[in-house]
């Protein structure tokens, strides 16, 4: 009976894992933002729903039930085979001087599979987005010196995903190290269309661009735990990511389309499989956290990314090195309580502040958000269902740029099981 349940659970999770792996567009619908227009798009942090509900912290957040994706040095805390998957839905309002409009989107947040190799070594495979491109804008104007009107439409979709293989080691009682090897892949498509009304009739000029990205990256992490006194621990976490070089294959085509039938009146492929390289920035992340009575947990994270340092002289002034600040808290009244289910529930909250790396209309913008969530224990407390809500805004303080206000709701499932442990029969 026991083994049949385990096998059936494994089959269901394997089917879900396969569906995730072969759904390349699942991540591209995570968000809709005009600020994903340039470069790689909007960078998405790799964290699970538990981390999201705590403002995105997770560099020094040890748990035997949920280790997250941010610091591979935390993996040895996993004592079970662990499958974690999350989905996110978003409601967003865009405002400008000309009006406002609402959008909604949804997509996969992440998935990961942890499996202990020994008491001091745990491995993880995971899939999560690195960046997302999803935008569509339009504007209409008169062509100077003519009676012709032009409507310009700009759209884009896609993004870069990262498949990661991580290992965490316990090197002494309270010291841990870890490393991650990441495979980046994905494509970003952008199209610019101009609809013209002239004496020769109506037609559409279209410029289509597609960039395919591939490459490898690396993370190295440290974690140290210090017992100050009974029921009070101080933790320290660090993750360093060196620059990563990605290969880009570019395709460009120009078309002249019939406005009524979208039939191509003329077409010119200007670029096919043109190869170039781009750099992802280096990153340094630091964190400290506090555990009190196995009930109350606080964490503060700081992250610095060298976007300007990774660009050439011609584009460096369009980017800046960014800083991010996050604070999160988790409270579990009594995780061992047998009399009250609600005392075993985890209550979470947090705040975050992130700087965007690229300029929009020669201006930099920042993102501020608050989050809250709850974790429901299931399966005798070994597994959990997690909910997270995040409210935030991107306020450029410039009337020419759009203000974003958003609300996200995330659902995560963390399943812990002893798949690879041998049963002992007396």
Summarize the SSE layout with pairings:
Layout (H helix, E strand, L loop, with lengths): L1 H20 L20 E2 L5 H4 L28 E16 L2 E20 L2 E22 L6 E24 L2 E24 L2 E29 L2 E10 L2 E15 L5 E17 L2 E10 L3 E10 L16 E10 L14 E10 L10 E13 L4 E12 L8 E15 L9
Antiparallel strand pairs: 1-4, 2-3, 2-17, 3-4, 4-5, 5-6, 6-7, 7-8, 7-9, 8-11, 9-10, 11-12, 12-13, 13-14, 14-15, 15-16, 16-17
Characterization of the model:
This protein has 426 residues and is mainly β. The protein has one domain (2-417): Porin (Beta Barrel). The protein is 6% helix and 61% strand. The protein is built from 2 helices and 17 strands. The protein has helices spanning 2-21, 49-52; strands at 42-43, 81-96, 99-118, 121-142, 149-172, 175-198, 201-229, 232-241, 244-258, 264-280, 283-292, 296-305, 322-331, 346-355, 366-378, 383-394, 403-417. The chain has a 14-stranded antiparallel β-barrel with strand order 2-3-4-5-6-7-8-11-12-13-14-15-16-17. β11 and β12 form a beta hairpin. The model is unreliable at 1-22 (pLDDT under 50).
């Amino acid at each position: 009976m026991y083994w049949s349940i385990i096998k059936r659970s494994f089959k269901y999770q394997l089917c879900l894992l396969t569906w995730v792996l072969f759904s390349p567009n699942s991540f591209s619908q995570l968000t809709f933002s005009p600020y994903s227009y340039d470069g790689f798009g909007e960078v998405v942090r790799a964290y699970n729903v538990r981390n999201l509900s705590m403002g995105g912290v997770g560099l020094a957040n040890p748990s035997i039930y949920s280790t997250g994706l941010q610091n591979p040095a935390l993996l040895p805390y996993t004592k079970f085979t662990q499958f974690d998957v999350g989905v996110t839905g978003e409601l967003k309002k865009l405002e400008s001087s000309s009006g406002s409009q609402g959008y909604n989107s949804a997509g996969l947040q992440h998935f990961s599979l942890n499996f202990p190799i020994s008491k001091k070594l745990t491995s993880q495979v995971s899939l999560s987005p690195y960046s997302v491109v999803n935008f569509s804008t339009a504007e209409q104007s008169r062509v100077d010196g003519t009676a012709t009107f032009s409507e310009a439409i700009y759209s884009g979709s896609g993004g870069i995903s990262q498949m990661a293989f991580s290992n965490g080691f316990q090197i002494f009682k309270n010291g841990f190290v870890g490393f991650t090897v990441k495979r980046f892949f994905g494509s970003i498509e952008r199209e610019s269309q101009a609809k013209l009304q002239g004496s020769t009739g109506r037609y559409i000029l279209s410029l289509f661009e597609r960039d395919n990205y591939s490459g490898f990256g690396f993370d190295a992490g440290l974690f140290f735990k210090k017992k100050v006194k009974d029921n009070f621990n101080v933790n320290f976490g660090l993750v360093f990511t060196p620059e990563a070089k990605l290969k880009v294959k570019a395709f460009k085509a120009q078309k002249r389309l019939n406005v009524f039938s979208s039939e191509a009146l003329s077409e010119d492929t200007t670029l096919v499989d043109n190869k170039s390289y781009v750099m992802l920035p280096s990153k340094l992340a630091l964190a400290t956290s506090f555990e009190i009575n196995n009930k109350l947990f606080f964490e503060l994270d700081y992250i610095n990314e060298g976007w300007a340092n990774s660009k050439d002289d011609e584009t460096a002034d369009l980017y800046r090195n960014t800083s991010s600040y996050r604070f999160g808290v988790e409270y579990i009244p009594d995780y061992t309580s047998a009399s009250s289910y609600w005392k075993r529930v985890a209550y979470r909250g947090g705040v975050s502040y992130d700087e965007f790396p690229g300029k929009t209309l020669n201006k930099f913008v920042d993102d501020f958000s608050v989050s809250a969530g709850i974790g429901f224990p299931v399966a005798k407390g070994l597994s959990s269902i997690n909910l997270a809500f995040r409210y935030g805004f991107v306020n450029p303080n410039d009337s020419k740029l759009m203000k974003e206000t958003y609300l996200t709701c995330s659902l995560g499932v963390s399943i812990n099981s002893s798949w690879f442990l041998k049963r002992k029969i007396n």
